[in-house]
Design brief:
heterodimer, A: mainly alpha, about 70% helix, B: about 300 residues, mainly alpha, two-stranded antiparallel ribbon, 14 helices, globular
């Protein structure tokens, strides 16, 4: 068998297995996989679904950009959920002061979100660079810490004045991202995400930071030998990665929730890792990968409603996609290696 | 954590100490079990960050098996089997397809989360179902000796299995030819290969062993510690186990003891919640996670994590 044939067979096998695994779980639930696929696609491209796909793609794009940026430097940021919370909390905390500021209030609100996430990310980078503490473990531990912290804040100091529900006060209107298509939840966060995609693509391709990041990821020894300040670089990369997740937090609050509450992230942090890997860490490809997962996230609601399929099916699909994309790299070795 | 200040004699009560130590062992054991196999796996040179997902799958399998068959021991067996299967996938991905071990591990975490929650909702229900658990051992009079009886002689049988596994694993790795080969694979796989050591076989064996202990750790949660399956019930214990292995510099017994340290942190925070009801409980719940970060920083676990 020729090398080309071998590749085709391998790719075929990988794609089939990747589709079979979620398919088997659908069968286990007593549903027809084809019907599930049809329901998913009809919803996602239907009159209600398309905007929900984009609504979910917004945070997935922002967080995915950050995860990919860190992964280019060989750093695993699994802490996006915690950084999202940090960003949302910082932005909401100061939001009341921006009432009447108009568009400036919204911009400061988003910047504060980025700062909150960046601070948490920078802390991880610092512990990694100076103390050799695994960023994987530290980011995950901080997720659990941040979940408890927001739980405390919305039941304590930042709780709404009636003190009935576990949620914070509402942010002022100035900090709300306007709806851009009437009758949907699609908000101006879409433009924030697109601007960040362009910015990330430029940083990745045209700047010293983008270059140093890639070298650090490909060969840390070479990066140190070339005189890069590896420790500082690690902190900067984790700060940017966390900053994007924090921005996603502010965008989610400004565009959807308009206040702090529990479960704001829906597991975007883990999904964003899959998004980054599918996009092969290319900033320009991230929004498309994010839309794919937007279909899964938004469609899972439809599957739950119409076919009574439990939501965790999304995670099984996510895992299949991660394994498949990684396996495709083995099957198509000419492409550039990830991380 | 050292935060249990002597606040009157009540706190220092022997009963309190007994309960605290017994709880330490009970709460640390799931992490400890997973850490034993992960230590072996990392010793052979392969990380498995995915043991969180394997533990979740094991916790579900044990609960499901116990509900279905009425025998928690069969549940434990199912947990071992699912652990072997998932670890086998990790070994296949990492050793044969040469996929980045962290990418495969994260995939395993997500799969375990999805598999356990999805199938649980289809079978034993989304709400926590109570599960018939493993009874603790009862050695009669010995189990009732003050202080040491409840702490040392009235734990779950799985706890004694865990202790034996930790010691046995440490012995195999440090004192046998097989263990020497494993260490050689982890230190330098190329050199090991030139010495005609079957590197992949040794690494596969260690990864599979890691799957067994992670499955057992998950089973411990659902049929010993909680007697129920709750979605995402592992709640970071798999990652804490990886942290324990880093702290223990990949030595199984030390990693196991580190896990008991996290058990102590957990037992302490639960008691502090009742001691200081005015303090927001969230600040206490985070103690084990903060302890993990602090321990990693203080431990300068550099040697364990070069490749990340």
């Amino acid at each position: 068998m020729s090398a080309a044939m071998t590749r085709v067979v391998r790719v075929g096998v990988i794609l089939i297995v990747a589709a079979l695994v979620p398919g088997l779980f659908v069968l286990l639930a007593g549903q027809n996989p084809w019907r599930v696929l049809a329901t998913l696609l009809l919803y996602a491209f239907g009159p209600q679904g398309w905007s929900e796909v984009l609504v979910h793609a917004i945070p997935l794009t922002l967080i995915g950009l950050g995860v990919a940026f860190a992964l280019r430097a060989g750093l695993f940021n699994i802490g996006a959920d915690g950084q999202l919370i940090a960003g949302a909390v910082l932005a909401v905390f100061f939001a009341p002061y921006f009432a009447g500021w108009g568009i400036a209030g919204l911009i400061v609100f988003l910047i504060l979100g980025s700062i909150g996430g960046a601070a948490l990310g920078a802390l991880v980078g610092y512990l990694r660079a100076w103390f050799g503490a695994s960023e994987i473990i530290v980011t995950i531990m901080l997720n659990y810490v941040m979940i408890q912290m927001i739980s405390y804040l919305i039941r304590g100091p930042m709780q709404e004045t009636s003190r009935f529900w576990p949620q914070s006060f509402l942010i002022p209107d100035d900090c709300i991202l306007p709806i851009i298509v009437q009758g949907t939840r699609l908000h101006a966060g879409l433009f924030v995400a697109l601007v960040m995609v362009i910015a990330a693509a430029i940083v990745q391709r045209r700047t010293v930071l983008g270059f140093e990041t890639s070298v650090l990821g490909a060969n840390p020894g070479a990066a140190a030998y070339a005189g890069f300040r590896v420790k500082i670089l690690t902190v900067i990369v984790m700060a940017i990665s966390g900053g994007l997740a924090g921005l996603a937090g502010a965008v989610e609050v400004g565009g959807i929730y308009q206040r702090l509450q529990d479960n704001m992230s829906e597991g975007f942090g883990l999904a964003a890792i899959a998004v980054a890997l599918i996009a092969r860490l290319e900033a320009a490809a991230i929004p498309f990968a994010a839309c794919l997962f937007g279909i899964f996230f938004a469609g899972s609601g439809a599957l739950q409603r119409e076919l009574a399929l439990p939501f965790p099916l999304v995670w099984i699909i996510e895992a299949s996609v991660i394994f498949a994309v990684a396996a495709l790299q083995w099957a198509l070795p000419s492409r550039k290696a990830i991380a | 954590m050292g935060t249990t200040k002597p606040k009157g004699d009540r706190l220092m009560d022997a009963l309190f100490i007994t309960a605290l130590l017994a709880a330490t062992i009970r709460l640390g054991m799931a992490i400890g079990l997973a850490a034993i196999g992960e230590a072996a796996s990392e010793r052979s040179g392969i990380f498995n960050i995915g043991i969180e997902g394997i533990m979740l799958s094991g916790a579900f399998a044990a609960a499901w098996g116990s509900v279905r068959t009425g025998s928690p021991w069969l549940g434990v067996l199912f947990a071992i089997i699912i652990g072997l299967i998932l670890a086998g996938v990790h070994a296949f991905m990492v050793l044969l397809l040469r996929i980045d071990q962290f990418v495969s591990g994260i995939g395993m975490v997500i799969f375990g989360l999805g598999f356990s929650s999805f199938v649980a909702r289809l079978t034993i229900g989304a709400k926590p179902t109570s599960v018939q658990g493993l009874a603790p051992v009862d050695l009669g009079a010995i189990s009732h000796i003050p202080i040491i009886g409840p702490v040392l002689f009235a734990q779950s049988p799985l706890a004694y299995i865990a202790l034996a596994l930790a010691i046995a694993t440490g012995w195999v790795i440090n004192r046998t030819a097989f263990g020497l080969e494993i260490r050689a694979c982890g230190e330098n796989a190329e050199v090991a290969e030139t010495l005609a050591i079957p590197v992949r076989q040794r690494q596969t064996a260690c990864i599979l062993f890691g799957g067994i202990t992670a499955g057992l750790g998950g089973a411990y949660l659902s049929v010993v510690q909680v007697n129920a399956f709750v979605e995402n019930m592992v709640a970071g214990r798999g990652f804490l186990a990886v942290a324990c292995v880093m702290l223990g510099r990949r030595r199984p017994v030390v990693a196991f003891l580190a896990a008991l340290g996290f058990g102590l942190a957990e037992a302490t925070q639960i008691r502090l919640q009742t001691q200081y009801p005015d303090l927001p409980y969230q600040f206490l719940v985070i103690l084990p996670y903060i302890a993990a970060i602090a321990a990693l920083v203080i431990g300068h676990a550099r040697r364990g994590m070069k490749a990340a």
